[in-house]
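Lab notebook: predicted structure, single chain.

Context: the supervisor wants predicted structures on file for every construct in the current expression panel, including those that have not yet been purified. This is the next one on the list. No modifications to the sequence; it matches the entry in the shared construct table.
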Amino acid sequence: MVRNILLMLLPMGSRRRRVALILKKRVFSKLKIRYMRRAVPALLKKIERAGFIQLLSDIRAALISMRAELHGCNEYEQWIQVYEPSQKELKRQRKQFHSRSVSFSIITPIDKISDTHFMGLARSLNEQTYDNWAWIIIGTADDIAQAEKLLVQLPVQQSRVHILMSNTRAGYITEAYSYTKGDYILIIQAGDTIAAHCLYSLAAQAEKGFALITFNEDQITDVESRRRNPLFKPACDYTMLTGWNYINNAYCFKKHALPDGNHFPRGGGRTQHLELLLRLSRLDIRSTHCESILYHRRAVSESMSENRYEQDMQLNAAPLLSDQSVTGKSVAFSIIILNKNSPEYIIPLLTTLIRYRTEHDFEIIVGDTGSSDEQVLKFYRQHEDLITVVTNMNYHFSRNYNQLVRDHAHGAVLGIMNNDIALTDSSVFTEIQRVFLDNDAGIVGTRLLYPSGRIQHGGVFFHDDRTRVCQPYHRLHGQESKRYPASNVLEFIPAVTGAFLFIKKELFISLHGFDEHYEEESQDIDLCMKVRRMGHDIGYIDQADVIHVENGTRPKGSVNNHDRSYFLWKWRSYIQAMILPQPVNTDRFRNVV
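Prediction complete. Output recorded below exactly as produced.
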């Protein structure tokens, strides 16, 4: 190209070609080399700073994932193809210039660990491509003596290994924490291992300012060290931290993120990890989820039942909204309704509630999302002393209810109610209150009927077939109520609908209310899942006193695929592990009449 340009610019003659070649070889070659030496490094830095390299990496990962899907690879095989580094990549990480400014303290409590398992952990640490780390091993005298003998057989730098002797097996991690000097803490159980690029990837996230970094895990078996059962998790979220599927050792946190005097809780086992993660999640820190790391957890034959673990763990969730919540008067119920126009639904409902409000001690709060119907507006004005109407709200189910609870609700129990509900008897409030007083129920719902008498809602359950696995459905939906008469019993079930849902206000606040990622649907089932994870029951009263004109304010048959996909992405593993294997316990029914 340069030669052609010169031929065009130089005058005609025999020397034209010769001069062009000389200039090309000598002058432009030197200029090109000089430019490349100066410009290319600067250009690469600019590209890296702008994130283009990460963009190219994401595109590559997407292409690999698409190719894997075309070849029928499962999610685990896709992850391996996308994120598992090759030996060439590991070699590059070891040689790559890196500030190495982030230091890690790795804590490993040992308790009668086998030689093979301990050696596997030590090898995985020795193979790390990132070298700014220290290893703290803590155990009793016998366990420490065994570990010291094994460490001699490995080329692990003794200067980075610190051995602590403890007189008791309780509170290992708490004791070791006071000896950590690294910027970030990583807890690895003896027998587990981490990938060679684990610390390298964690350091990259730490340099971006993240104080809590979570990642994925799989299991490694004793037989040929095969890996299986991967657990891929969503990004770190407070509500996701309270489930057994997410409480594990696959996380790393900044040491100074915890305030003074708020270090590791006493005790041991996975409950200690749970408490620590809950404390971290309540702090105003940046957190992220690193998908490119797998923590290889040693599969054991005898381990604590996950069901037992969830029953035994004690959670003291710090309220998110309590500091901003309203104070003053106190009532038993806060009935909260969203409405826009619909005089044929909202006026009869509010009229009924006003009649019942004194008898059952509740307040009525209406969040209006843009009503223009004069009948509705006139009714608001006529009863402004009996109803709290909050106007000028832009409709968003989760956000609106969270705001109304935070700014206006005084009741000990929140009643989330659709505007197309009709009440035939006030006794339902008495029974709901009794369930909350006599049981550890976090949420209570009831049977709902269509105006025709057919059953609209008999409790929410989840499909267990391959095509619709974990998708929620309404039990007995559309069935004649005469075939399934109301039994007036209390049943504990997976979930209830948000069309007529009652929840303790304190619990609602501690769970951050409704998840505002949902646009139109599934947020009520999501709330039930969060309540179950916190160890509370979902109560269902089989009484036929409530009518629900389904889709009275929403087009019939409308589906929000985004919300449904988000729900499954968030809760599928929990439902499969904790709900589907467990049939409804019919022994827990009791008569409530």
